[in-house]
Amino acid sequence: MRIELLFWDGCPSHPRALAELRGAMAEMGLDPSAIVVREVQTEAGAARERFVGSPTIRIDGVDVQQPPGEEPFGLTCRVYYRRDGRISPTPDPADVRDALRAAQTATTDPDHDRQEMR
């Protein structure tokens, strides 16, 4: 399982997102030191990474909360929607845990992909 946190230094919420991600991983018995933290520094890098804002957390290349609609790529602060309807600079912790669980299942269950295709 590859866990990445992509950030832009112009946005102040990435330390909080990293702390929350580490906490979720520790709760699930995963190694928080496995997180790959990468800074996106240029607009060209944002386009190449398909970076819709800071912070972005991806697990096995999949965003933990897919942006609504067609968000432009760029160096910007990201806005997330919590499950209770609030707006937040970090993803809902429940979305992060669900994404981690789904990736764990896909990693440990060789029939997972076949079951989802049924």
Explain this structure.
The chain has 118 residues and is α+β, with helices and mostly antiparallel strands. The chain has one domain (3-111). Helix content is 36%, strand content 16%. It is built from four helices and six strands. It has helices spanning 14-27, 43-49, 93-108, 112-117, and strands at residues 3-7, 36-39, 56-59, 62-63, 80-81, 87-88. Strands 2-1-3-4 form a four-stranded mixed beta sheet, with helices on one face. Strands 5-6 form a two-stranded antiparallel sheet. Strand 5 (80-81) and strand 6 (87-88) form a beta hairpin. It is globular, with a radius of gyration of 14 Å.
Provide the descriptors you would attach to this structure in a database record.
single chain, 118 residues, alpha+beta, four-stranded mixed beta sheet, two-stranded antiparallel sheet, 4 helices, 6 strands, 36% helix, disordered C terminus
Note poorly predicted spans.
112-118
Radius of gyration: 14 Å
How many discrete domains?
Answer: 1
* Alpha-carbon distance between the two ends: 24 Å
The largest sheet is:
4 strands, mixed
Topology:
Blueprint: E1 3-7, H1 14-27, E2 36-39, H2 43-49, E3 56-59, E4 62-63, E5 80-81, E6 87-88, H3 93-108, H4 112-117
Parallel strand pairs: 1-2
Antiparallel strand pairs: 1-3, 3-4, 5-6
Condensed summary:
This protein is α+β, with helices and mostly antiparallel strands and 118 residues long. 36% of the residues lie in helices and 16% in strands.
